[in-house]
Amino acid sequence: MSYRIFAIPRLYRGITGVAVASTGFGLYYTYMRSVVQADSGAPKPAFGSGPAFLSLELESTEAINHNTKRLRFKLPSPDNVSGLTLTSALLTFSWPKGHTLPVLRPYTPINSLDEQGAIELLVKKYPNGKQSTHIHSLQPGDSLRFITRLPGYKWLPNKHPEITLIAGGAGITPVYQLIQGILQNPEDRTKITLVFGVNTDADLLLKKELSEYEARFPGRFKAVYTVSQPVTGSPFRQGYVTKELLSEVAPPSSDSKVFVCGPPPMENTLVGSKRKPGVLEELGYRKDQIHKF
């Protein structure tokens, strides 16, 4: 969750390396004290409501395709959980060699939020991506700093009878986190339609996991894939996430909700702006029914 897709809150945009260094120790001490004082009978959250400044060791890394890796980081204790809620991300920090200023980028963990001992990131490397390039260079045993959690849309089970999730490329990570959280909650009966648009067949990240959910939850979860440059003989439809496609697979209803996460051109086309309505409004979705991660 690499991600340009999450906008970094203004609070973090102004952080400099000096400010981070000067406050980091005190925040880390505060965090560790809270961990020690936490109830030992329940899994301890690694990330609470405030800054944490944790340096987490990379346990393993796996190449998913030509530009994407799955990385598993150890939490401070084997009985820690992340402490994140659905649609939350983690703000990462690094100071890549040769750069004057540190780099901060948000990523969304893709493993179950109640899993103990580790978090997993799915990171796409961009040609000029400072943080994604740095993260891809990490080897097991290296560490990455995580500053704090970034809460997103506050999900309430069964608030909407059905939702549509529209993802483009690496924007699948917050979308997948929400899918996973809904379907793993036996109390949540929300129906989900995923529309996932990518450049090539190899860019269909988490395809195996999504197919498994379709098989386990027929009638509740449906995934629709569209590939702009499919390989010869591809089983997927060719094209982009268009008005025509959405009108076919995800027509709006009065109490539905649609979530969007993808590259800026895709988001702008679908969501629009104050001056110009996007495709979703043209289809009949109200502004309050549309959420952009």
Strand order within the widest beta sheet? 6-5-8-2-3-7
Principal-axes shape call? globular
Average pLDDT for all residues = 88
Radius of gyration: 19 Å
Which fold name is given in CATH as the topology of the largest domain?
Elongation Factor Tu (Ef-tu), domain 3
What distance separates the N and C termini?
11 Å
Biggest sheet, in brief?
Answer: 6 strands, antiparallel
Structural domain count: 2
CATH superfamily grouping of the largest domain: Translation factors
Count up the helices.
8
Q: Low-confidence parts lasting 5 or more residues at pLDDT below 50?
A: 1-39
Q: How do the helices and strands follow one another from N- to C-terminus?
A: HHEEEEEEEHEEHEHEEHEHHE
Structural class: alpha/beta
Q: Top keywords for this entry?
A:
Rossmann fold, Elongation Factor Tu (Ef-tu), domain 3, 293 residues, alpha/beta, 6-stranded antiparallel sheet, 2 domains
Describe the protein's topology:
Elements: H1 10-13, H2 17-37, E1 44-45, E2 54-63, E3 68-74, E4 80-81, E5 89-94, E6 103-107, E7 118-124, H3 130-137, E8 143-150, E9 162-168, H4 172-183, E10 191-198, H5 207-216, E11 221-227, E12 237-238, H6 243-249, E13 257-261, H7 264-271, H8 279-283, E14 290-292
Parallel strand pairs: 1-4, 9-10, 9-13, 10-11, 11-12, 13-14
Antiparallel strand pairs: 2-3, 2-8, 3-7, 5-6, 5-8
